[in-house]
């Protein structure tokens, strides 16, 4: 009992991440409202512990350098798709990811951004590698 109370107290005392800024991105005819994870803390938290995402909502991860970035789904409750995007806004690869998985999903080529959306979102919208995203010019790494 004491352990449960202590764990609950520590959880409640832990600092919550501040509400993340939201940016409007475009993919073809589709508008995306993406939370921006541009610093180490927000990128590490990602979409963990969320129970849902809005239909056209997601999270864009902004990295400080072009590299083969990888994502995983530990502590993530909802199935997601991730698009890795280069600095010019071109999608270099898309991966479908399962909840609670520690399998890594990596960019096929160096990427500057990663955009996580509900699983199947890119396929349902006909968005494939080679497509361009609009609005990334509003983002800057921290």
Please give a handful of descriptors for the protein shown.
142 residues; seven-stranded mixed beta sheet; disordered N terminus; two-stranded antiparallel ribbon; Jelly Rolls; alpha+beta
SSE inventory with pairings:
Layout: H1 2-13, E1 22-27, E2 30-37, H2 40-45, E3 57-67, E4 70-71, E5 80-85, E6 91-97, E7 105-106, E8 111-118, H3 121-124, E9 133-134
Short description:
Helices cover 15% and strands 37% of the residues. The chain has three helices and nine strands.
Please give the number of β-strands: 9
Please mark out the parts with pLDDT under 50 across 5 or more consecutive residues, or reply none: 1-17
Largest sheet: 7 strands, mixed
As a percent range, the share of helical residues equals: 10-25%
Q: Please identify, by name, the CATH architecture.
A: Sandwich
Report strand %.
35-45%
Biggest sheet strand order reads 6-5-8-3-2-1-9
Using only CA atoms, what is the Rg? 16 Å
Structural class: alpha+beta
Task: Tell me the series of helices and strands, N- to C-terminal.
Answer: HEEHEEEEEEHE
Distance between the termini: 42 Å
CATH superfamily: Protein of unknown function DUF192
Q: What is the number of domains?
A: 1
CATH topology, anyone? Answer: Jelly Rolls
Task: Just give the CATH class.
Answer: Mainly Beta
* Global morphology: globular
Figure out the total of helices: 3
């Amino acid at each position: 009992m004491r352990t449960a109370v202590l764990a609950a107290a520590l959880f409640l005392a832990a600092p919550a991440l501040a509400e993340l800024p939201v940016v409007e991105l475009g993919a073809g005819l589709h508008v995306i409202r993406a939370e921006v994870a541009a610093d180490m803390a927000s990128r590490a938290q990602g979409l963990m512990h969320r129970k849902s995402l809005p239909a056209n909502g997601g999270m864009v991860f902004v990295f400080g350098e072009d590299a083969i970035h990888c994502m995983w789904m530990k502590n993530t409750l909802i199935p997601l798709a991730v698009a890795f995007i280069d600095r010019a806004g071109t999608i270099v690869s898309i991966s479908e990811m399962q909840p609670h998985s520690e399998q890594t999903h990596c960019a096929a080529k160096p990427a500057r951004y990663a955009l996580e959306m509900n699983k199947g979102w890119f396929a349902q919208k006909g968005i494939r590698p080679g497509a361009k995203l609009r609005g990334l010019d509003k983002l800057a790494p921290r």
